[in-house]
Design goal:
Strands 1, 2, 3, 4, 5, 6, 7, 8, 9 and 10 form a ten-stranded antiparallel sheet that branches. Helices cover 28% and strands 34% of the residues.
């Protein structure tokens, strides 16, 4: 987008595709990294970086151990906010909406698309639980590696799954000189999109 171009006011998913493609060309590491914010039923928030692993008109998909802290918060409060920040492009995208769990078939397909060692590491981890000593985790990794090495893949743990954020609000932010930044927010009730500019 040229310096004087404005953020388009139509089809936020198409704008996301365009910005994401540019980020994949410009960002040196993990252009699909996003901050995922969740909250407890009492409204206590927490945030962490995760990786976007798929997106289409249905929403934005990430995977996790559902027994982790974020998994517990998601199960109790199926809402999330996502934030992409691409420093090289001086852009941000905020996405908010309800979550739905992906199908077992989707979770299986993604889990087994990962390198074998990554499958082992995920299966061996009681994510977010206290760890008395790092060697305990490394020993469990080695045990699973030996057990499944001949098969070449690890069975997906039933608590390892994915979630899809179904966007109800998408906000685009781009840097402008002298902090005269540009923001456009799209909202949807599940039908079409409406948008408006926001003061920076």
């Amino acid at each position: 987008m040229a310096e004087n171009d404005t953020i388009p006011h139509e089809n936020p998913l198409a704008i996301f595709d365009e910005w994401f493609a540019e980020a994949q060309e410009s960002e040196p590491n993990d252009p699909n990294a996003m901050c995922l914010a969740t909250a407890t039923p009492h409204g206590c928030p927490s945030a962490r970086m995760v990786l976007l692993k798929g997106h289409d008109e249905r929403g934005f998909v990430f995977y996790t151990n559902a027994q982790s802290r974020k998994g517990g918060e998601i199960r109790a409060n199926m809402q999330a906010a996502l934030l992409f920040h691409w420093k090289s492009l001086r852009r941000q995208i905020r996405i908010e909406g309800p979550l739905e769990e992906v199908t077992s078939e989707e979770a299986d397909a993604y889990f087994h698309s990962r390198p074998f060692k990554s499958q082992v590491g995920s299966a061996a981890s009681d994510q977010s639980s206290p760890l008395p000593d790092r060697q305990v985790y490394l020993d469990q990794v080695e045990l699973l590696r030996e057990r499944y090495e001949d098969a070449g893949e690890v069975p997906r743990p039933p608590h390892w799954t994915g979630f899809r954020c179904q966007p109800r609000a998408i906000e685009f932010w781009t840097d402008r000189p002298n902090r005269l930044h540009e923001r456009r927010r799209f909202t949807s009730d599940g039908g079409g999109w409406t948008s408006s500019l926001l003061y920076p």
